[in-house]
Amino acid sequence: MANTKPLSGYRVIELGQLLAGPFAGSLLAYFGAEVIKVEPPGGGDPLRNWRVLKDGTSLWWRSLGRNKKCITLDLKTDKGRELAGQLIDGADVLIENFRPGVMEKWGLGPERFKEPNPGLVYTRISGYGQTGPYAHKPGFASVCEGMSGFRYVNGFPGDAPVRPNLSIGDSIAGLHAAFGVALALLSRQSSGTGQVVDVALYEAMFNLLEGVVPEFDGAGVIREPSGTTVTGIVPTNTYRCADGKFVVIGGNGDSIFKRLMTTAGRPDMAEDPRMMDNTGRVQHEREIDDALSAWCRSSPSTDILQLLEGSRVPAGPIYNAADMLADPHFNERGLFEQVEINGEPLKIPAMIPKLSDTPGNTQWPGPEVGSHNVEVLGDLLGLDEASQQKLRDEGII
Questions:
Q1: Is the pLDDT of residue 1 over 60?
Q2: Beta strands 11-14; 34-39: pairing state
């Protein structure tokens, strides 16, 4: 059917809480999968109460919980685990991000589903993976980012390593998990069987390290933190302008560098034979950065960017949320979707990638705890109202 989303027809059961697993579930739901999120009765996923709240619920949740059918099950009870197992028996994908061993302890490990559901893609997200001497350790993203090598190269020489003010380790792990699910579903088309997708937070961040490992193994070079620059690529830096705002300038191509320095009023440097290629510019990085810093300090950021755009030099501002929402390019590209929460509009970010023929979209924002109990437990598991009421009375849902 035309415009069917890529993952339409696939059912995903999302277990676990907070960010890595739920972000993977959000990506799959955005592109058409039926994602059933299982939360503990009462407060649900703790993320519902994190950061900025409105009407008692996190605004972040409205984005992260989009397109999901939310049900409650107490997985610490036999009956709760039994019902979860029944849901997984009828699913294409399971996403869980508990500490390794918890699912096996509950009788819901991969072996449990091999016979009743051989096509299941069993997706596991943890700090250090399902095997190895560190598998048992608690795996918060902040710690895993440090061990992965990612944190080491962030910050200024001599200072403590810096973290972005985002849960980047969780989000990157969620991206890898969604990618792993897609790969496993493709493989299933030929093999007919599912498999385990094992994603570790520290490994997801390790996957971003570019040449860090071969540079050390092949040349004994450890890449160090370099502040707002990138080691071995010059010039690419952030500069403060006369209006106090910052701009990012990437002038590291040979011809781009000439245009940049000419625009910055330094034709002498544009034609300096010492700086004709990146190797030479690396040797004279301080001289180049001092010249660009002085130039940027002399004019407002808008003037600097206008001049650089005219010279076809890659450059741009440092945006905050207000800047993004006001920017015509962000809006023309459809990066915001509007939902309604209790009758009030709320903008949440669209999700990428953009697909020309089968795009994803937000059908509904993150719903309330247990919003889909009746639909899922009744329609999928065949529990009548009396049975559901008994579960409510016993605190299982």
A1: no
A2: parallel
Q: Which residues, listed in sequence order, are joined to residue 239 by a DSSP beta bridge? A: 247
Q: 276 to each of 236, 253, 258, how far by Cα in Å?
A: 15, 10, 8
pLDDT digits (tens, 9 = 90+) for 39-69: 999 999 999 999 999 999 999 999 999 999 9
User: What CA–CA distance (Å, rounded) separates 260 from 160?
Assistant: 33
User: Could you tell me the two tokens for 101?
Assistant: 């061993």
Same domain, 75 and 189: yes
Beta strand 121-126 with 34-39 is: unpaired
| Rounded Cα–Cα distance for residues 243 and 108 (Å) | 58
What distance in Å separates the CA atoms of residue 25 and residue 34, rounded to the nearest whole number?
9
Query: 362, exposed or middle or buried, with CB in 10 Å at 0-12, 13-18, 19+?
Result: buried
Residues 274 and 306 in one domain: yes
Return d(Cα 210, Cα 11) in angstroms, integer: 35
Task: Give catalytic status of residue 78 as yes or no.
Answer: no
Range of the domain at 281: 236-240+246-317
> Which residues 6+ apart lie within 8 Å of 10 measured at CB?
28, 32, 33, 34, 92, 93, 185
- By CB atoms closer than 10 A (0-12, 13-18, 19+), residue 161 is middle
Q: Tell which of 262, 285, 317 closes a domain.
A: 317
No. of helices (H) and no. of strands (E), the chain = 18, 13
Helix, coil or strand: residue 258: helix
**Is 178 exposed, middle or buried (CB count within 10 Å of its CB: 0-12, 13-18, 19+)?**
buried
* Structural domains in the chain (count): 2
Which CATH number fits the domain that encloses residue 65?
3.40.50.10540
Q: Is beta strand 93-96 parallel, antiparallel or unpaired with respect to 11-14?
A: parallel
**Residue of 45, 170, 272, 289 marked catalytic:** 170
**Residue-wise pLDDT tens digits, 208-230:** 999 999 999 999 999 999 999 99
Q: Are residues 43 and 110 in the same domain?
A: yes
Angle at 365 between CA 199 and CA 4, to 5 degrees: 75
Which pTM does this prediction carry? 0.94
